[in-house]
Design a protein that fits this description.
45% of the residues lie in helices and 8% in strands. It has helices at residues 9-16, 33-41, 56-67, 81-84, 100-103, 130-136, 139-149, 155-165, 174-182, 195-205, 208-220, and strands at residues 23-26, 46-51, 71-75, 91-93. The model has no long low-confidence stretch (mean pLDDT 90). It contains 11 helices and 4 strands, in the order αβαβαβαβααααααα. It has a 4-stranded parallel sheet, with helices on one face. The longest helix is centred in the C-terminal third of the chain and has 13 residues, at 208-220.
C-alpha cells in the first residue's frame, strides 16, 4: 500500500514532541504519512485518525493490520471528532486541505490539470459538487467565496462571470471553470490564475471554515 509522504513531515512530528505512551489524534488521515510517523515515534504510542474521504479507508485498513490496536480510524469530517473521541489525548495534528491522492485523481474535480466534472467534494457521498454549488449560490455567497476564501483581488469580475456562466456546460467541468476564472485574472502570477478560486470553492463546498470553527474549541479545550 502506497503512503503519502507529507511536506515537512519531520518538522511537523517534531512539533508534536512525541512522548512514550502518547495518545494522538490526526484529524486528516489522507495517505497516512503523519499517522505512521507518530506510531513509529514510539512503540507504545496510539493514534486515532479521521478522514471523510471513502478512498482513505483502504489505506487506513492496511495501517490497522500493521499497528493493530494502537491505531483507530474514524470515517467522518474532522469536526465530528468531538462526538467520536471521548478519551483525553496527548497531542493533535491538523493538516488541512487536500492530499496528493485527491489532486492526482482527475475524476475528483480538484485540479484543472485534466478535464473532469468540477466536483471538489472531500466526501463525494454527501453535499453537492462545486459546479452545482455555484449554480445554487447567490451573488453574496459567491462574493464571500471569491473575495474572502480565495482572497482574489479580481473578485467582482469573477463573480459576475460565474453568475453569467450559470446553466452553461463550461461551468460543469474543471477546464471550463478554470477558463471562465482565468479570463478575468490579470497580471503576472507565479501560480495558475484559477488556483485561488478553486481553493475557495473547495473550502465552501466542504464547509471547511464552519467545520474548523466547530473543531478548534474541542481540540484546544
Amino acid at each position: 500500500m502506497e503512503y503519502h509522504n507529507p511536506v515537512l513531515l519531520k518538522e511537523t512530528v517534531a512539533g508534536l514532541n512525541i512522548k512514550p505512551d502518547g495518545i494522538y489524534v490526526d484529524v486528516t488521515f489522507g495517505g497516512g504519512g503523519h499517522t505512521r510517523a507518530i506510531l513509529e515515534g514510539h512503540p507504545q504510542n496510539s493514534v486515532t485518525a479521521i478522514d471523510c474521504d471513502p478512498e482513505a479507508a483502504p489505506r487506513a485498513e492496511a495501517l490497522k493490520k500493521e499497528f493493530g490496536s494502537r491505531f483507530t480510524f474514524v470515517d467522518g469530517f474532522f469536526d465530528e471528532l468531538g462526538h467520536k473521541v471521548t478519551d483525553s489525548f496527548t497531542g493533535i495534528l491538523l493538516d488541512l486541505g487536500v492530499s496528493s491522492f485527491q489532486l492526482d485523481t482527475p475524476g475528483r474535480g480538484f485540479s484543472f490539470r485534466a478535464d473532469a466534472e468540477a466536483d471538489m467534494r472531500l466526501n463525494p457521498r454527501e453535499g453537492v459538487p462545486a459546479w452545482k454549488f455555484i449554480e445554487q449560490s447567490d451573488t453574496e455567497t459567491l462574493t464571500t467565496v471569491v473575495r474572502d476564501y480565495a482572497e482574489e483581488p479580481r473578485y467582482r469580475a469573477i463573480v459576475q462571470a460565474l453568475e453569467k456562466a450559470k446553466g452553461t456546460p463550461e461551468l460543469r467541468t474543471t477546464l471550463g471553470l478554470s477558463k471562465i476564472i482565468s479570463y478575468h485574472v490579470r497580471g503576472h502570477r507565479t501560480i495558475h490564475p484559477a488556483t485561488r478560486v478553486f481553493m475557495g470553492l473547495r473550502m465552501a463546498v466542504n464547509r471547511e471554515v464552519e467545520r474548523l470553527t466547530a473543531a478548534l474549541p474541542w481540540a484546544f479545550g
